[in-house]
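#onboarding

Welcome to the new folks! Below is a worked example of what a typical request in this channel looks like: someone posts a single protein sequence, and someone else replies with the predicted structure as tokens. Don't worry about understanding the tokens yet, we'll cover that in week two.

Example request:
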Amino acid sequence: MKSTYFTVVPQEHKIGEVKLIMLPLDEGGGGSRWTALFIGPCYRTGHTQGLCAMKGFAALLLIWTLLSPQRAGGEAWPTHTACRNGNLQVLYQSCDPLQDFGFSVDQCSRQLKPNLNIRFGMVLREDIEQLFLDIALFSQGLSILNFSYPICEVDLPKFSFCGRRKGEQIYYAGPINSPGFEIPKGDYQVLLELYNQDHATVACANATVLYS
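Example response:
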């Protein structure tokens, strides 16, 4: 019978007002998984027990995504849903062979707002004194749009996670600047890459936008 045992090396994570104590669950086979030992405290004036539980569950899902072990044997990471609303959905898949990441869009709308609220979390494999985003948009194999966007610059850090070091976890929930426009019907492919000051890849994703 395969034996399972706990290695008690707790890690504490705090996302917003939700705190999770994570324990690694090692399995006799060389792999490892993580399990939540405790969620709390997340109560304050005006918070209901249901809201607290929902926040804890959402945080647990994100932590599971961030700390999942790397793919073995070159398997692809799973495809995640960033948002879905009626006939519009946005899917993404990490193209980094070493790790996955968590990402979601709060409001899925064909009318892309200038200030788009997102949630993003990952474990850094590189320092990000500077951080840049390259986006390439394609439709039916034809290039539609290419642009680069500076996220963290030495003299202009736009976000609180700018300057974080390798091995640290980052989590951001809030608005980002985006070109406001209406998404026309069709299928679109988006290639996104985050890279640092040394041009080392921090994260990358293949995304698909489907609007029928």
